[in-house]
Structure formats: structure tokens, C-alpha cells
Automatic annotation (TrEMBL):
It comes from the Bacteria. Pfam families: ABC_tran. The keyword Kinase does not apply. InterPro entries: AAA+_ATPase (IPR003593), ABC_transporter-like_ATP-bd (IPR003439), ABC_transporter-like_CS (IPR017871), Metal_Ion_Import_ABC (IPR050153), P-loop_NTPase (IPR027417). One of its GO terms (molecular function) is ATP binding. Keywords: ATP-binding, Nucleotide-binding, Transport. This is Anchored repeat-type ABC transporter ATP-binding subunit. PANTHER family: METAL TRANSPORT SYSTEM ATP-BINDING PROTEIN TM_0124-RELATED (PTHR42734).
Length: 253
């Protein structure tokens, strides 16, 4: 009996833009129910990797598959939470209408939202604790509420893979704790999460696995192999690719 395909697989992926290669020889897989932290300095290729997984840019070479299929054929199976500043928060729509925009690529530009669409929207709002605020204009939201709106928007298609781009930037501690608990519950239900972050504490204490980028994958091991200090040292250029090298810098988080 054949083994099921990994949920996400990148095989010998080179990616970038015309005249500029950003990622080289990227290889890793994520299984259903993994929560991986994607770390790296600015310019290391985290955003390029996300765009490649989303099918927004085509690999220069190599292959990306989601459950064995090309990303563009399974867009409804991928939820994406961008950084808050990339969203137009002054647009005059409500929370519920914003979450519905996550289903636009399923409905098409001209079909009106139906009963099933609204059911998925309200389910997503309930998951993030925003049902009571569904009619509030998004311009009136706090930073933590905005992050939850973007998460609900991503969850509105019931994805199997969730990409989180710096989800804790500008979020207060209670909201961050709530989001981490929600991410863990989603993973327990079988969802796979890949989260880019500059917050090494969150990466070390929340994720089950750490993937570090330096042009390619330079670090890939279970999160419990790393202390917060070790991850900071790696960001500064230390060679910590082998977990055995970490013994001298292990400290409690």
C-alpha cells in the first residue's frame, strides 16, 4: 500500500524574479498537522517562498506540490494571512464582508454569496471570536482585531494548509496568546501551518518544527532542539544547523 503524499512538498526549488534568484535548492516537506516556524533575516526569502507555495510565482526550477498537486489547482486548500499593513483597512466594509473576500476566488467576480458562503464566513468568525463584531467597519478595529479578521478571512475556505506571515507584529500579549492557542487547536484538527516570524520566542515555544532560510534551507529540526538564544544566535550568523551544535548555548526560554 502506497504512502500518502506529504501535504506540502518543495523539491529542489529555485525561486526568484527576473534577473534575481532568491531561493536555491529548497527541499522540505510538511505533513498534515505540523506547525512549522519559518525564520530568517530580512531578504532571506521567506516572502518569496510563500509566494511560490501560493502559486503566485513559478519556481525557476524544481517542484512545489500541495497534497500531490500544483498550488494553482488547489487554491481553496491554502489559507494565507498577510502582514496587517498590506491590507487596505480604510476600505468602507464590515468585518463580515472582509472575511467574505477570502472566498472571492471560489465564487468568481460576479456570483453573489450564497448560503454556504455565509455559513463558512460565520464559522470562521466564530473560530476567531469576532461573531458579535461582524457588522463593525474594519477601520474601527484594533491591531489584535485586525489580525483576527485576516485569520478568519483565511479560514473562510476551510483550508488544509495555512500560511501566516508575521502574525504577531503589533499584537498585544493577550491576543498573541489567544492566537497561539487557536493555531494549536487547528493543528490538532489536522491543519498544517507554516508561520514566518521574527519572534524567536514564539517560534521556539509555539511551533513543533523550525525551518531557517539563508538563500536555501539552512536549518530544519524539531523546535525543542533549540533555545530562544540559539535561534537568535543563528539569525546573527552562527552555524547551528546540527542540533548537536546547540549544547553549548542551550538556555531556558
Amino acid at each position: 500500500m502506497s504512502q500518502p503524499s506529504p501535504l506540502l512538498k518543495l523539491q529542489a526549488v529555485d525561486a526568484g524574479y527576473p534577473g534575481r534568484s532568491v531561493l536555491s535548492g529548497v527541499n522540505f516537506t510538511l505533513e498534515a498537522g505540523e506547525f512549522a516556524g519559518l525564520i530568517g533575516a530580512n531578504g532571506a526569502g521567506k516572502t518569496t517562498l510563500f509566494r511560490t507555495v501560493l502559486g503566485l510565482i513559478k519556481p525557476l526550477s524544481g517542484e512545489v506540490t500541495i497534497a500531490g498537486k500544483p498550488p494553482k489547482t488547489v487554491r481553496s486548500g491554502i489559507g494565507y494571512v498577510p502582514q496587517k499593513h498590506l491590507f487596505a483597512w480604510d476600505f468602507p466594509i464590515t468585518i463580515a464582508e472582509t472575511v467574505m473576500t477570502g472566498r472571492t476566488h471560489l465564487m468568481g467576480m460576479w456570483r453573489r454569496a450564497g448560503k454556504e458562503d455565509w455559513k463558512q464566513v460565520f464559522t470562521a468568525l466564530e473560530r476567531v471570536g469576532l461573531t458579535d463584531l461582524r457588522n463593525r467597519p474594519i477601520a474601527e478595529l484594533s491591531g489584535g482585531q485586525r489580525q483576527r479578521v485576516l485569520l478568519a478571512r483565511a479560514l473562510s475556505t476551510a483550508p488544509s494548509l495555512l500560511l501566516l506571515d508575521e502574525p504577531f507584529t503589533g499584537v498585544d500579549a493577550p491576543t498573541q496568546t489567544m492566537l497561539i492557542e487557536l493555531y494549536r487547536s487547528l493543528v490538532a484538527e489536522g491543519m498544517t501551518i507554516l508561520m514566518s516570524t521574527h519572534d524567536m520566542y514564539s517560534a521556539a515555544t509555539s511551533c513543533s518544527r523550525i525551518i531557517g532560510l539563508r538563500g536555501g534551507v539552512d536549518l530544519d529540526a524539531p523546535a525543542d532542539h533549540f533555545s530562544v538564544e540559539a535561534l537568535h544566535r543563528w539569525l546573527l550568523g552562527a552555524d547551528l544547523a546540527a542540533p548537536a551544535n546547540l549544547a553549548s548555548c542551550e538556555v531556558s526560554a
